[in-house]
Amino acid sequence: MNIAVLAKLVPDLVEELTIDSAGAKLDLAFARYIINELDDHAIEQGILLKERFGGQVTVVVPEGDGADDVLFTAAAKGADRLLKLTGFSPDIGNTRALAHHCSEIIRELKPDLVLTGVQAHNDLDGSLGSLMAGLLELPYVGYLSGVAIQNGAASVRKEYPGGLIAEFDVTLPAVLGIQAAEQPPRYVAVSKVRQTMKTATIESMPASAGASAPLLTISRMYKPEAAQHATMLAGSPEEVAAQLIGIFKELGVL
Amino acid sequence: MGNDVCVVIEHLRGQVSDISYVMLAAARGLAESSGGKVLAILLGHGAQDLAQDLLADEVLYADHPELADFTPDAYEAALVQLLGEKQPRAILLGHTSIGTDVAGTLSVRLKLPLVSSCRQITPDGKYVSQICGGKIMAEGQLPVPAAVVTMTPGGYKPEQGRGSARPEVTAIQPPPLTPMRTKLAKYIEPAGGDVDISKESLLIAVGRGIQNQDNISLAEELAKTLGGVVTGSRPVIDQGWLPTSRLVGKSGKHVKPKVYLALGISGAPEHVEAITDSETIVAINTDPAAPIFDLAKYGVEIDMFDLLEVLTTKAKEAKAD
Q1: What's the CA gap between A166 and A188, in Å, rounded?
Q2: Residues of chain B with CATH 3.40.50.620
Q3: In this complex, is the C-beta atom of A33 within 8 Å of any C-beta atom belonging to chain B?
Q4: Which residues of A touch B300 (CB under 8 A)?
Q5: Residue of chain A whose alpha carbon sits nearest to that of B113
Q6: What does each of the 321 residues of chain B score in pLDDT, given as a tens digit?
Q7: Which of B99, B150, B168, B208 could join B235 in a cystine, given CB atoms 3.0 to 4.6 angstroms apart?
Q8: What is the nearest CA distance from B187 to chain A, expressed in angstroms?
C-alpha cells in the first residue's frame, strides 16, 4: 500500500491577521505558519494505515516557512519519503494551481491512496483533495474520520451532521479528504525530530509548467463587520465571576 | 453560458437540509439580476416529494436507484451531464460534507472556477466568503461566464428559500450510473452517549483554549455545580478529551440551550452554525478579535484559567445561599 499525503502550511490563527494597505490580501510578512491541522490528521492516518497494512508513506509539502519542519516531523513519526514542492507558494485563492502541481507529482508517484486534510481555513477556491481528484480523474470522498483497507479497496467512514456516519467502499486508487485521524496526531519529541534531520532527506520537486493562474479575483478583504458585539464584562476574576453569577441567576440557570 | 442559477439540493435520509433553502435564497437575487431562473437540481430515488417546498422556478428531478443516497461518484456523473447541458450562470452546492465532495471534481470537469465558503451572493454577482476561521471576509465578482460556488449558512435564513406552493417539477434522465467507484455500505447511527446535549439547558463548552485533557476537570466541576453539561468543539473531540457525543459543530450536534458558556472557543463558522439557536451565549476568550464575541450576548476577555476556579467557588456559594 503506497500512500501519498499532501500537507500545506497555513497562517496560525492564534496570531492577529492583518490585511495589506491595498485591502485585497493578507499582509503575511510577520505571519507565523503552522501545518494545516487537518493535514496533520492526514499524515497520522497515513502512518496508521502503513502500520496496519504495510507499504510506504510519502509526504508532500509546498515550500515555505516551516515546510522542512513539517517534513522532518512526519519522518520522525514514520513517513518514508519527503518531497518539497518548490517554485510555488500556496496562498488564498490559488488552491487550484496547487492541486495542478500536486497532481503532477501524484502522477509520478502512482500511489494507491492519496490523503489530505479535507479543507484548510484559507481555502477560497476549493479544497486540495477534491480538486486533485478531479484533475487525476480519481474517486474522492471527504470528511473522513476512519479509513481501512479491505480486499484491495478502501472502507471509509464519512461524517454527516448530527454525528451520523456513512461507511463507503471506495475503489483504489483514490483521493481521500481527512477530517480526523482515528487517533490524535502522535507526539514526537523535538530530539527525535532533530535526530531524523541527520538521516532523512528532503527531495525537491519543482512546480510543473503550465499551472493555471488564479481563476478568482479578490477585490476586497476585510474583517467581519459584526451587526452586534457582546457586552464585555470587565474587572478582576472575582469581579467578573460575581457578574457572571448574577447573569446566570437572571437567566434562571442558577 | 446561460443566465439561470442552479442549486443542487442536499437531502439526507428523506430530509432536505437547511443549506438547500439557504442556497435557494442566495440564488434568487442573482437569477433575477441576470435575467435567469432559479433551477433546483434534485437527485434521488422516489424522492420527488422533497421538491414540495423548494422556492425555485423549476425543479429538475433525476430519479435512479444509484441516487437513493448520496455517493460522490453518482452525483458527479449526474451533475456533469445535466449542468453541462444547462450551462447556468452559477452552480450552488452546500459547503458541507456532501457539497464539497463533488464541488471540486465538478469544477474541474466542467472547466469552471470554484468559489468556496461563500456566505452571500449579491444581486450584482459578487461573492462574499468567510475564511480563516471566520476572521476574514473575502469578496470579488463571481467569475464569468459561470462558476461553481459552495455556500455556508449564515447569510440567509432557510425560511427565505422555502415556498408555499409546489414548484414545477420536470423529470430528467440521468446518465448510466454503474459501476460506481464509491458505494455506500451502511449508515452508522450516532453514539448514544450519557446525555443528549441538544436537549440540555446549560452547556459549558470548551475549545482549544482548554489546552489539555487534565483541564477538562475544571469545566466539569463548574458544570456539576451549575447543573450543566460539558461539551466541546472539534479540536477537543479530535484529541479524545471528550467523547464524540459531546461534539457541538458542523459534524456534531446543533444545540439550543438556555445558556451556552463558551470557554476558549474562537467561533469558527463550523462551530457557530451549531450554536446560533442558543438563547444566551457567554464567551470567555483571551483574543479580543475572536469571532465568538460577535455572536455572544456577554463576553469576557480573560484567561479562562484565571476565572474558572473563582467562578466555580462563587457558584457553590450562590447555591448554598
Answers
A1: 32
A2: 5-172
A3: no
A4: 232-234, 240, 244
A5: A215
A6: 799 999 999 999 999 999 999 999 999 999 999 999 999 999 999 999 999 999 999 999 999 999 999 999 999 999 999 999 999 999 999 999 999 999 999 999 999 999 999 999 998 999 999 999 999 999 999 999 999 999 999 999 999 999 999 999 999 999 999 889 999 999 999 877 778 999 999 999 999 999 999 999 999 999 999 999 999 999 999 888 999 899 999 889 999 999 999 999 999 999 999 999 999 999 999 999 899 999 999 999 999 999 999 999 999 999 888
A7: B208
A8: 4
CB-CB under 8 Å, A253 with B132: no
Identity of the residue in B71, B182, B250 whose CB atom sits nearest the CB atom of A161: B250
| Residue numbers in B near A237 (CB within 8 A) | 302, 306-307, 310-311
pTM here? 0.93
Size of interface A-B (CB pairs under 8 A): 279
Q: What angle do CA B107, B98, A156 make, to 5 degrees?
A: 110
| The CATH classification of domain B197-320, taken from the options 3.40.50.1220, 2.60.120.200, 3.10.580.10, 1.10.760.10 | 3.40.50.1220
Query: A112 at the B interface (CB within 8 A)?
Result: no
Q: Where in chain B is the domain with CATH 3.40.50.1220?
A: 197-320
Interchain contact, B100 vs A118, CB within 8 Å = yes
Every domain of chain A and the residues it spans = 2-206
C-alpha grid cell, residue A172: 483504489
Inter-chain contact B136–A125, Cβ cutoff 8 Å?
no
Fold of B5-172: Rossmann fold (3.40.50)
Q: Is B161 on the interface with A (CB under 8 A)?
A: no
- What CA–CA distance (Å, rounded) separates B188 from A154? 17
- Compute the nearest-CA separation of B299 from chain A (Å): 5
What backbone phi and psi angles, to 5 degrees, belong to A234?
A: -125, 165
B64 touches chain A (CB under 8 A): no
CA neighbor of B237 nearest in space, from B251, B229, B222, B247: B247
pLDDT in tens, B108-137: 999 999 999 999 999 899 999 999 999 999
The class level of CATH for A2-206 reads alpha beta
Sheet holding B169-172, edge to edge: A220-222, B136-141, B126-131, B114-121, B147-151, B90-94, B5-8, B38-44, B58-63, B169-172
Distance from CA of A198 to the nearest CA of B (A): 30
